[in-house]
Model the fold of this input.
Amino acid sequence: MEIRIEHLLDGAKKSEGLVVIIDVFRAFSVECYGYDRGAKEIIPVKEVEEAFNYKKLNPSVILAGERNGIKVEGFDFSNSPSELLNIDLNNKTIIHTTSSGVQGISNAIHAEEIITGSLVNAKAIARYIKERKPKIVSLVAMGWCGDTITEEDEICAKYIKSLLEDNEIDISKDIEALKKSDGARFFNEDTQHIFPKDDFYLCTKLNIFDFIIKVIKKDNKYRTERIYI
Done:
């Protein structure tokens, strides 16, 4: 198995094989919590307008997402796991758009298979990949808006790689250090309304979910499904 670590939108575009699109803060942590809260399906969409079109066709769907971290006007929720914790999502469909992770999905044009990546289900991701036994694994750290490298996504990529190599690394100190680097926005009082402190802790809980999120493409549209592993 050849394991590659790619970066940002350019990395998504050139990724091959089984592709893991990683977005720790916060897209694919949010999707894990959404499924855990009972969501029937989460549909990633590239454009805001596409999300609103889903709502027109089916007013019962839930719109969640952001641009530059800020909740899209007219959406039900931002891209925040803490917003979902007290919401009954049982049998609901979530339409999800973000500035980074979801964009990575739509740009992974050479992928044979796409799954999402986060710290909260990293070991499940590694188990799934080992079962699939692909020739190439591309771990794509999406960063901020797909154009700036961020430490949390790089840490996640390196951690999953270590699991695939049966040489698990200890990332506890790296996670703690995020509070003063790329995670500092979650502790800034001026940005708490956009980046709640609870989101940091929810996104950095290691291996609390035993499922992966697989991306399915049909008729040029994407949807996801939860697979326990």
Q: What stands out?
A: The mean pLDDT is 97.
